[in-house]
Amino acid sequence: MEVKRKGEISKSRIIESAAKRFVVVGYQGTGINDILIDTNLPKGSFYYYFKSKKDLGIEVCMHYEKQMISWFSSLADQADTWNEFVDLMIEDMRNRFEEREFFGCPFTVFGSEVSIVEPDIAKQCTIALDHIQQVFAGVLKNAGKSRVKSEELAKRTLALYEGFLLYFRISWDLDALESLRNSLKELAK
Fold this sequence. Notes:
Elements: H1 6-24, H2 32-39, H3 43-49, H4 53-78, H5 82-98, H6 106-114, H7 119-142, H8 147-171, H9 175-187
Helix pairs in contact: 1-2, 1-4, 4-5, 4-7, 5-9, 6-7, 7-8, 8-9
């Protein structure tokens, strides 16, 4: 088991606070002081770990990526088929929404907000989305699709995933998740 030092814990607390705030109230709507209040850390702690809010944003992107890859990999490990993977994903989203822990895809929310004003953060979001697409391709390949077909379907899967979750984020309409489920199952037939 990995033991974190006090400094690593403080840095993680800042990243976790920022990650939640960036998805809920936005990057522009989150001030460094908001994060420091959430974490009960002094201002010097922030600048000890991060040169700027932009550097924090890049770290938050990597944090989201780690969470998302872990989540998708866990779902893939539990599923024997593409349809089972999709069902597990949608059910988990619905459950997390009911617990007020799901606000859509962080890369859509965060990445679209910063894409023009903070291109370095947007680039990190793009890298993360590419990695998620690779996970989708792996699940599709394990479900019996060829490598070429898996990669093609993974691109379309990512587009559907992001599009429906953006609509969900705007509307909070749970039917968007059901439409995503049906579209992803239809896609892989």
